[in-house]
Amino acid sequence: MNSPEESSGGQPSKYCGLVEFENQFKDVEEKTPVSTVLCKQWKKKTSGCSIKDSLLDTFPIVRTIRKYEVREDLPNDLIAGMTSGVMMIPQGMAFAALSTLPPIVGLYISFFASATYALLGTGRQVSWGCIAVLSIMMGQILDKYDASVKGGNSFDCFNDTLIEREDAKNNRTAGEFSSDPSDPVTSRRMEVASGVTLVAALVVIVASRVGLSRVSSLLSNSLITGFTVGIAFHVGTSQLKEILGVRVARQSGIGSIVKTWIELLKKIPDTNVATLITSAICILAIYLVKRFVNEKYKKKLRVPIPIDLIVAIIATLVTEFGRIHKDHGVRVVGDVPTGLPAPKFPDLSLSSSYIGDGLVIAVVAYTQTLALTKTFGLEHNYPVDPAQEMLASGMVNLVCAVFSGYIAAGSVSRSMVQNGAGGRTQLASLVAAIMVLLVILFAGPYFYYLPKCVLSAIIVVSLRSMMLKLLTIPEMWRRSPLDCSVWVFTCAAVVVLNPDLGLLVSVVLSLLIVVLRTMVNPVSEAGQIDLGDSLSVELRSLRGYSAAKPPRQARIVKIRTPLFYVNSEAFVTGIYEKTGVNPVEIRKANKKREENTAKDPSVTESYKETKEELGEEVQNFDEGKSTQANNGNTNEYHREVAGLSCPVIILDAAHMAFVDLMGVQALQMVIKEMKTVEVEVFISSLPENVIPLLKSTGFWEKHGDRLFLSVDAALASLVSQQKK
């Protein structure tokens, strides 16, 4: 940006005025009815779009298969798929238990989610299935359902009687449920979860088709990470009763973690020693292999050791042949049915009260999966379509809902393993789904003797990566205190409150922070930094850049944020503060002076002398030689002299991303108020998207002579006027 004298030879360029520029170059826009616009958009989308192209867009795997290199890709996909599938089996069963549903549900979700996403998803390394975060959130919904059953209508009372009978028959504590899907109580609870999932899936599918895939932007990475770490505390706490082998009633609501810990401390004397020893051995074995073998020798190991499955198999064999479940009271999974469930649309009347909670889970699932997909897309250089990912997410959950499952998502840990094992395409997910299908069809009964504490051990070790994120807080604080604050607040809110309420409060806080950032310092006074030679003159804030000097002809104020109803008042007061020109105060001072003059005519002569003295100081101030300005009292001094000089204020609107009606009114107020004290206001560098509103409100027509293409153009025009 050259100085005005250099850029225009002392004369303003032909199109330095924004109005003249727009009149010369802006295409004439014809007003068309909304229906016509919609028709044009529809034709644009459908023209040249064949059924074949639509199918290819909807099923990305077709494009993948057409370009598939069998010799290079197939071996990698087979190994990665089998590795991921082996992990899915114990993790799916363990994570399903977090939702208080039968472990077999986790296998249903793992199979149908992986198979469906492989057909519809764009992420080639993403492993879908049952994950801890969503399971614990679904468990919260089922807790609400259980609470409503215990104090509900006649049907609910009947259901409540069933719960009490089943608890008495199976020696269960309140809050524990059968692992048999055919159990009446368990069946209805599965239907509640499926109903919530079905409605959420349909909403997500519709949202993907109407362009709402950007809803995930409401959840920042800091918020999502803090949320998952907070959930990890809930997950870990929920597994302690199985690790200790004690019976503790499931707690829900605000402060559920604290309530659970209190109950656990009371039950410590009742700890089952055999269960505790089994848990400790399993946790130690899984941790040592994952930490010191799989992680340490990641580059050398073609496939990581499936220690989760190995431990589960060994523990099952030891329990069955050692009879520790009968001799020492170690609780086992029990009956695991074989075969796929029949498709069934759930009774939505059972879940109608929890649809909002389900939508929250669906948004969390989509957001986490999209972030994971984008990560692998960047790593392997393939495109990721957020809208298609949202459609895939909705379809996956729709299928899961019809086949007795609940909301699924991409698993971070399994996806990392699938990627590390060399997975090239979505076929790896199909291989993993086939592995799980074999277990569902044939291996279910063999997991009868699997100890529940082993599933808890698998879950607890899987939380390690989440808990390690707590160690990143100091580094995060050094990088961005604001993001760190959101992270910590979200984590604390989820722990202290409950997952859904904690997430809601955190989202509100994040949006509030965005709003507050536009309200704090929406403007700053700027100056020019001369880079010398033929380089441009840069505009920078006076604060922080001592080399920045305000031009002699005017004050430059940068608008740093969008101008809308939230910060319109702060914008006006900010202009007054940064320029040191407050028309209201100046008018008050002038009125007081006039009153004093009317009372005592001798004041007039004194005022003229003062004006002459101040006028000299004003000149020195404009030339950067004022002693008071050098002492850091520029604003205070300028307030005193502003009413006696005739400065010009140039508003640099280059960063004003958008403006609303109140923003336009704020601009008009500044112009009007400044004019009352003989201060002119110019506006430069207006973004194109704000011009239509300025025209429709009459601002363009009324104040068009104050609008310029750039700060240089405004200064050039000012120099030209002064020469005249």
TrEMBL record:
Residues 591-634 are annotated as: Disordered. It is found in: Membrane. One of its GO terms (biological process) is transmembrane transport. Keywords: Membrane, Transmembrane, Transmembrane helix. Residues 556-718 form the STAS domain. InterPro entries: SLC26A/SulP_dom, SLC26A/SulP_fam, STAS_dom, STAS_dom_sf. One of its GO terms (cellular component) is membrane. The chain crosses the membrane at residues 94-120, 126-142, 192-212, 271-289, 390-409, 430-448, 454-474, 486-516. It comes from the Eukaryota. It is a multi-pass membrane protein. NCBIfam families: sulP. PANTHER family: SULFATE TRANSPORTER (PTHR11814). This is Sulfate transporter-like.
